[in-house]
Amino acid sequence: MILVNGKPEDTLSLGDRAIHYGDGLFETIAVEHGLPLAWDDHMQRLQKSCLQLGIDCPDPASLLLETVEIAGDRELLVVKIIISRGSGGRGYTPAEKGTTGRIVLAYDWPDYPKEFAQVGIEAAISSIRLGHNPLLAGLKHLNRLEQVLLSRELAAKDKPETLVMDIDNQVIEGSKSNLFLVSNQKVMTPALDQAGVEGVIRNALLKIADELLMERQIGRFSLDDVFNADEVFFCNSIAGLWPVRRIENTEFALGPVSLKLQQVLQEKKLIT
Amino acid sequence: MILVNGKPEDTLSLGDRAIHYGDGLFETIAVEHGLPLAWDDHMQRLQKSCLQLGIDCPDPASLLLETVEIAGDRELLVVKIIISRGSGGRGYTPAEKGTTGRIVLAYDWPDYPKEFAQVGIEAAISSIRLGHNPLLAGLKHLNRLEQVLLSRELAAKDKPETLVMDIDNQVIEGSKSNLFLVSNQKVMTPALDQAGVEGVIRNALLKIADELLMERQIGRFSLDDVFNADEVFFCNSIAGLWPVRRIENTEFALGPVSLKLQQVLQEKKLIT
User: Fold this and answer.
1) B168 near A194, Cβ under 8 Å?
2) Which domains are delineated in chain A?
3) Pick the catalytic residue: B140, B161, B189, B231?
4) Which of A47, A85, B116, B138 could bond B198 through an S-S bridge, CB–CB 3.0 to 4.6 Å?
5) Model pTM score
6) Would the ipTM clear 0.85, i.e. be above it?
């Protein structure tokens, strides 16, 4: 089932600006027994991003009701919320008065092997470089052609995630997740002011590091920094936290910091 | 009327990747008395762009039939063709077998005053900077949030077009058109290897300059280069060629090169 502005629909008006320009945002949320995980974090990001794009943000209460309705009594599923600026305007120019659209979609929980989170993954390295776009960097907007091309490349490699760099060869993230490095107990993640998506779990982990009085750093990191890290992991709202055990010929420990952070995320009910 | 894969529709399946990721391309075509202008140029760009994104390009013959059908006997209109990678796949990862969708939409001819082409316009300067994305630069893809934000800014200024720079402060294009400078009879236009859309009329003008044995250059230009040019103009498939008469306090001549190029575009039936 899909809800468009609260009503069951299978289709979207062809005037919608999501189709024409990717003029909108989205959130991908794990819903467990009717409870959307990290809901407040998702809504805070959505409201902040809408403000940045000049889109009238829908009332989170409506989105919550629609998310719960679409989840029904399923044990575990993925709910995707797409916010579109709606229809109208003239060409690229949006209408003065917004007609924000809400699309709430339900997806089966992905069948990632449990080992990915428990013993870690082997990651690929993408040959594709993310562009620099300070205007849109960090936002989970609907302009996702880069991720489509990255994921298309990854699909040929039979690995669950890939390390993605930007045009300056700084590591940024995975194809669908954020990246963390741990060295000497310090928790590090790439700055996303030029490229990348500021994931809800990434931001939660930075707060958790503070709460645990761990040293942490948002910075610029090279592939060498990754290879020299003690621990490496990817994270997102659905996969949770995937330790990286191997990238090319470099092996990483299934380290205590990754496992501790994963445990706290679960205890805080931010991931399953 | 809108045709989706040849059939009249008002809506698009909510599984379509154009909605979720902007996973597609588009062409905006002037159609005069049933004749799509610069048709071969549009189709060549579309085929090249599809190849670059790994999208199966629809048969241009089908697109031509659909364009002519939707144009009917209208004297002059805009036909927009959206090509989507279609539905399917898993998250960002496209399906192995493409299900390319064709969306053909008819729009009223915009009511630009004739003076824009005949005596020129006053252009704004955008405060928004285009990102750098060598992977996608030049393509007329569906990831157009930058243009939405540019156009939103321009709408508040009561000017028909705006000069847009990239994050290195190089001038790139307008919000909906390409930019040319003319100095000492030399025709110049910004390189679009980092940002911008390679317009059909831009590329036609470069060929025309060759045919007319005019010196021409694709290069990197600053705002100062614009202010120091003898002539400045914007161009696209619908507006045609708009000479720029003024930017802030700098006035430009309605110059002979701009008018000559405009005339050749009309004689070749590339613009109305």
Assistant:
1) no
2) 2-108 (3.30.470.10), 115-267 (3.20.10.10)
3) B140
4) B138
5) 0.97
6) yes
